[in-house]
Amino acid sequence: MLNVTVISGHLSRPAAGRVLRSGSTLLTLEVTVRSGDGPAETVPVAWTGAPAWASTLDVAEEVLIIGRVRRRFFRAAGTTQSRTEVVAERVLRLPAARRARQALAEVSARLEAASEDLRAR
Question: Were both Cys, which of 23, 31, 66, 85 would link to 44 (CB 3.0–4.6 Å)?
Answer without folding.
Answer: 85
